[in-house]
Amino acid sequence: MRSYDEYCSVAKTLDVVGDRWTLLIVRELLLRGASRYTDLRNGLPGIATNLLADRLRELEHAGVVSRREAAPPVATTVFTLTERGRALEPVLDELARWGVPYMVDGPAPGDAFRAHWLAWPARLFLRDRDPGGPPVEIALAVDGDDAVLESDQGEIWVRPGRAEHPAAEMTGPPYAILGVLSGRVDPERAGDRGLTVSGDVSALRRLLPD
To answer: How many Å separate Cα 2 from the centre of its chain?
Structure first.
């Protein structure tokens, strides 16, 4: 692990999490919870296998990540954030908020995307207008990748995978779905952006910004 060799709390923080890919590993563990090495590789397109292994070792040494051997039938190494690692969550929230304006015009050529990354705009922008109402699931299909937007008792989150009983579904490119989730695009007027919305649109609007 490289160091700035400065007696400054910002520098000491960057000594631990300032290297390329490190905060994105933290992002994946915050979004997925306990994860196998292959889960992390899937959520970090472009990272070299040896670099991921190095970064995990460094984070473990710094007390940010812990590893354990999962019991059968999983029988593999599982990585989780420690309490110290989870303390980075508000830092990533603010980085995500700061970076949204750079996403408005859509991805750059070659940009990778995973549907569960939409958890950040969901956390930043969405609020359940009827927190006492029944749980709601919205299926998200983004460039062939699936995730589920869920709300229950006022808590909103996005998880990877398919919805079992979605009230509505949004299908389209990531910038179009991001536009809807951020309140910049009306879901019923997003067809020109390649977005298809089906099902109960009122269930979706229940979660969207004003």
So the answer is: 27
pTM of the model: 0.89
53: domain CATH number is 1.10.10.10
Q: What's the domain count of the chain?
A: 2
Of 168, 159, 158, 164, the C-alpha closest to 203 is 168
Residue among 149, 177, 144, 23 at smallest CA distance from 89: 23
Give tens-digit pLDDT for 134-193: 999 999 999 889 999 999 999 999 988 999 899 999 999 998 998 899 888 888 888 888
Instruction: Please indicate, yes or no, whether residues 122 and 191 belong to a single structural domain of this protein.
Output: yes
> Is the domain of 132 the same as that of 83?
no
Does residue 158 fall inside a structural domain?
yes
The answer to whether residues 76 and 15 belong to one domain is yes
Distance CA 98, CA 96 (A): 5
Task: Output the pLDDT for position 27.
Answer: 97
Run of H or E residues at 93: helix 89-99
Strands 136-142 and 168-172: parallel
Question: Are the C-beta atoms of residues 47 and 41 closer than 8 Å to each other?
Answer: yes
